[in-house]
Amino acid sequence: MVDDPDPDIYREVYDKIIQHGEDAVPFLEDELIRVAGEESRDRLEFLIRKIHLDKISRGLERWVTDTPQDDLMEAWLWVTKYRYPDLSESDLRSELEGIKKDVWLEMNENLTALERIKVLNHVFYDIHGFGGNMDDYHNPDNSYLNRLLETRKGNPLSLSIIYMMLAREMHMPVVGINLPEHFVLAFMGESVDPESLQVKYDKPLFYINCFSGGAVFSEMEINAFLQKLKFDPLPSFFEPCPYSQIILRMLNNLVMAYELQGDDRRKEELATLRERFEKLLV
Length: 282
Prior knowledge:
The protein has helices at 7-20, 25-34, 38-65, 72-83, 89-106, 113-127, 145-151, 156-169, 219-229, 243-261, 264-280, and strands at residues 131-132, 153-154, 174-177, 184-192, 199-209, 215-217. The chain is an alpha+beta fold. It folds into 2 domains: 1-66; 72-280, no CATH class. Helix 7 (145-151) links the parallel strand 1 (131-132) and strand 2.
């Protein structure tokens, strides 16, 4: 009845199918093979995409409300599943574990902060060959975890995320810095609270540009960058940003990437996903 010409009947059928969610997808896909009419195919494809988008949205909602917020990879996997729903999470986690092991083998607890970053840079860029996708900067695949691991090419945000995850596995206090028009990392310095005597990581020692081979730079250079872009040096441009803002920025990047590709359907779907995600953060 998906192809019923009566809009009221179609709406009723549509609502019932959506209620079944993922369970309805195999039947919709089977029907898609059989039908010949263009309108029927369009409706079936729309229903399949709608169910898939709802699934991704629910996954991100669970991440915001239920999952420990230090599990950034969980949210990244949900975003990646938008485009690659059949990816193998275990394979991706296993590959990351292998990279982490290589870093661990090279690391020494007695190294200074800069020396530890130098080791991570060597493993990440020299041994495993990660780098910025200079030739196809706005390709949406730069944002998807599976494609980043396959091609070793990404954008500033995706490279920073995977770099930060590896650093934190090595107990390095590396955090994301949400600059306008660029994303970088900061290695936080520690201080001791005089009352509680607890260690806090509250001030960046230096910043890291993962799109430029892990180059280290200073707060003065961030100020120069902001001045060049004609942005006021707001405190938020120098402070760690929450993981939820990192995922929001990734969704923004994807909306722009699909817009530049002229893929209006995916641009609109990602814009819908972004809008739903933003509402979760209010």
